[in-house]
Specification:
about 280 residues; alpha/beta; TIM Barrel; 11 helices; about 40% helix
Length: about 280
């Protein structure tokens, strides 16, 4: 399947037990490793620490990224901004908020230059919206930059822990041309959400999908070992004519066989799409 990709870092060793972070030592190697298992789509990752040293935000980095994409026939259509979850500008005030919003604008501009069309903003964990003030601050700030997003052809996809109806109410406050939803299969299962209900509320606003599996109330496990209802999810995606990408944000292999397990997850996901899709 040409629209299945992987989350950057999933082909690198875990550092200090962190399941997801930018792979500083091996980010260039992942292009070659992924191409060997016939994956040519990557979702970039950004952390707040050393943000402006990340290749995405340096001129030299842009040249390297463009070269590697051309060399290995790669596309980077999306980015997960863990930096926003680590330091959410919608929870900050004064100079801190100004600085964090400047970071957001820098990331949008960098994505525009590299042709990255979707920025995933995680409204989960530390980034979770806790009250109406935070929700209003987020919406008002993003609306200020709607023109920039349209100019650069960049969209924001929210990954949220809101219940289906609340998430629908939230996303309907924002322009569908610039804002959509990142549907995380594992997170929804861990929260006990029912796919039919989720898709009935906001299925037409989903613009990116994270493929992973989680048991109810627990963390990521190998695909098929959690409570994710993959049959229902992929049937609903097909029903809503989803044409976006499927990003493997899957469980790490403790033995370090990164390409081996990612190849297996690629096969599983391909089978689900073909079996349950239209």
């Amino acid at each position: 399947m040409k629209n299945i990709g992987f989350m950057q870092g999933r082909l690198s060793d875990v550092v200090d037990g962190v399941i997801q972070e930018f792979p500083w030592k091996s980010w260039e190697d992942e292009f070659h490793i992924a191409s060997e298992i016939d994956i040519h789509i990557m979702e970039w990752t950004l952390d707040q620490e050393d943000l402006y040293l990340n290749p995405l935000l340096t001129n030299e980095g842009h040249e390297k990224i463009s070269h590697l994409c051309e060399l290995y026939s790669f596309k980077i259509p999306s980015l997960t901004g863990d930096c926003f979850m680590q330091f959410p500008f919608w929870k900050a005030e004064g100079p801190e908020k100004t600085s964090l919003v400047s970071d957001f604008v820098a990331i949008v501009n960098a994505c525009g230059k590299l042709g990255i069309g979707i920025i995933v903003i995680p409204l989960v964990d530390n980034g979770s919206l806790e009250n109406s003030k935070q929700e209003s601050m987020l919406i008002n700030t993003l609306n200020e930059y709607d023109a920039l997003l349209k100019k650069l052809n960049v969209k924001i996809a929210f990954e949220s822990d809101f219940a289906p109806q609340k998430l629908a109410e939230f996303i309907n406050l924002l322009d569908s041309e610039s804002f959509g939803i990142n549907y995380d299969i594992g997170n929804s299962a861990a929260l006990g959400f029912i796919p039919d209900e989720e898709f009935s509320h906001y299925g037409d606003r989903i613009i990116n999908v994270h493929v992973k599996d989680r048991p109810l109330g627990r963390t990521t496990v190998p695909l098929g070992e959690g409570d994710s209802d993959f049959e229902s999810v992929f049937k609903n995606l097909s029903k809503h004519n989803y044409k976006g990408n499927y990003i493997l944000q899957t469980a790490r292999d403790r033995a370090g066989r990164h390409s081996h397990v990612l190849k297996r997850y690629l096969k599983q996901t391909t089978n689900w799409i073909q079996r349950y899709g239209s």
